[in-house]
Design goal:
UbiD C-terminal domain-like; 4 domains; 5-stranded mixed beta sheet
């Protein structure tokens, strides 16, 4: 199917409208809580993208749910970038030793590769209007939850350059508006923009920063993609777009501008300055708390004529970021075996917020090679933020969690296949540890062809006191409803010793059996 090139947000909205994937809402709506609630109800029903044309307190319309379905992602990008990556990997695997045949196979990819990159342009729609100084309160930033600490840019495209070598980073780090000229920047310690600021702060320098909002759909996805630190996000944006990304100089100097962005906010992040940022209802489904973060001091703002403000709403999965994450996994997963030898398949589960749970199928050619492969995964870029990693060498699809879990439980040897790593660096959004960025993670392995046990599938017998409503949900996995921890702190220990439960490899203690087993996603 022919896929037209999409150079900006307007191109994409035209396609969505033509495909009846865009609902235009002319009724006045409020960016404080109301837009977010409408968005949540629509995405829960598998509904379309939403263009709010009459936003209280702002002259700019708001569009949300741009990528909230697999179909809309296909409309945005088609199969072109996925085909390119698959063909590139296949070529690299076949080029050793090189031959004329393999070199001839490279010609089409070389042609596509020449279309990847940046190009300068004198025509930059983003420069059509300007504000000196910036007036951020005119932008329709969303407040998504009652507990949020303020209004946030929820699709921020934060551009910085390394203070020493000018390597760039484009990341999606949430932005909390304080007033017309200042915002908080939620730079996490494990992310590229945070590295740039750390280096600038060591030098006693302010870090120049450009906040883009809107633009080509490819730009938005490139900012989210978990790329290795040295791979430039703007190149990925060009690959996704299918053509070179247009850049224009800022008349006032500094970073070049993405020509087709809807908004570009310029400024600096000074060293040593912090302000409270948050709380914010994040993609794990609970609040990330208020902490001290760097401050973005704006100098000026550019925007297109009749600019459109894109936003998203995050919360308990599945939300819009679930579909984006799955698309990026499909795009990048063929590269994993190239950069992580021995890893044959890797899946992070969007139902858990991606970082919480991952699974891998690996080679286990010598005893415990799988363990080394697991450590390799936990040491790779943003995969290092994984909370729980499941490893197998079985010929199964690890993306099928029910099959994976059953296969692993049939083979795990608990005394040697479960590893807990304490006192390690963790995701800033992980609040299960003793303090921010500190905590633990685990790796579970189920290896070999031979099963170690047959798994129970039905429960009969008694339960400990304070336990009710046992329900086998998956083979070998029993869900049990229990009393609050304060009422019986020893309940978990009592369960492990109860005679009628010793045959179950995994027992999940919950406060609602019905809620925990309503679906695989709820589990």
């Amino acid at each position: 199917m022919y896929m037209p090139l999409i150079h900006n947000l307007r191109d994409f909205l035209e396609i969505l409208q033509r495909e009846q994937q865009l609902l235009i809402i002319d009724t006045p709506v409020d960016p404080h809580l109301e837009i977010a609630e409408i968005h949540r109800r629509v995405i829960a029903r598998g509904g379309p993208a939403l263009l709010f044309s009459n936003v209280r307190g702002s002259s700019f319309p708001v569009v949300t749910n741009l990528f909230g379905s697999k179909h809309r992602l296909e409309l945005a990008f088609g199969s072109r970038p996925l085909d390119f990556v698959h063909n590139l990997v296949a070529l690299l695997e076949s080029m050793m030793p090189p031959s004329w045949d393999t070199l001839r196979q490279a010609y089409p990819l070389i042609g596509q590769g020449l279309r990847i990159g940046l190009k300068n342009t004198r025509h930059a729609p983003v420069l059509e209007c300007s504000q000196h100084p910036a007036r951020l309160t005119e932008l329709p930033l969303l407040t998504s939850w009652h507990s949020d600490g303020g209004a946030f840019v929820t699709l921020p495209l934060v551009y910085t350059e390394h203070p020493k070598d000018n390597r760039h980073n484009l990341g999606m780090y949430r932005i909390q508006r304080y007033d017309d000229q200042t915002t908080g920047v939620h730079w996490q310690i494990h992310k590229g923009g945070g590295y740039h600021y750390h280096e600038a702060e060591k030098l006693g320098q302010a870090l120049p920063m450009t906040l883009f909002i809107g633009g080509p759909p490819a730009l938005m996805l490139a900012a989210i993609a978990p790329l290795p630190e040295d791979i430039p996000e703007l190149m990925l944006a060009s690959l996704l777009q299918g053509t070179k990304l247009s850049m224009a100089p800022d008349p006032l100097g500094g970073h070049r501008l993405v020509a087709e962005a809807e908004f570009a906010v310029k400024g600096i992040v000074p060293p040593g300055v912090r302000r409270p940022e948050g709380p914010f209802g994040d993609h794990y489904g609970y609040n990330s708390l208020q902490h001290e973060y760097p401050v973005f001091q704006t100098t000026h703002l550019y925007h297109r004529k009749k600019a459109i403000y894109p936003a998203t709403v995050v919360g308990r999965p599945r939300q819009e970021d679930y579909f984006i994450g799955d698309f990026l996994q499909d795009l990048l997963s063929p590269l994993f075996p190239l950069v992580m030898k021995g890893v044959r398949q890797l899946k992070t589960f969007g139902e858990t917020g991606f970082h919480c749970l991952a699974a891998a199928r690996v080679a286990n050619r010598y005893p415990r090679e799988a363990f080394a492969a697991g450590l390799r995964i936990l040491g790779e870029g943003q995969l290092s933020l994984t909370k729980f990693l499941i490893i197998t060498d079985g010929e199964i699809d690890v993306a099928d969690f029910a099959t994976l879990w059953t296969h692993v439980l049939e083979r795990i040897q608990w005394d040697q296949d479960l590893f807990v790593f304490a006192n390690v660096s963790q995701d800033t959004l992980d609040y299960t540890g003793p303090s921010v960025n500190k905590g633990s993670k685990a790796m579970l392995m189920g290896l070999g062809r031979e099963k170690q046990r047959d798994l129970p599938r039905q429960f009969s017998g008694s339960l400990p006191r304070d336990c009710t409503r046992p329900l086998p949900f998956l083979p070998g996995t029993l869900v049990v409803e229990g009393c609050p921890y304060e009422q019986n702190p020893e309940l978990a220990d009592q369960i492990t010793k109860h005679r009628d439960l010793v045959g179950w490899p995994v027992i999940v203690l919950v406060d609602s059996t019905d809620g925990a087993t309503a679906s695989m996603q709820e589990f």
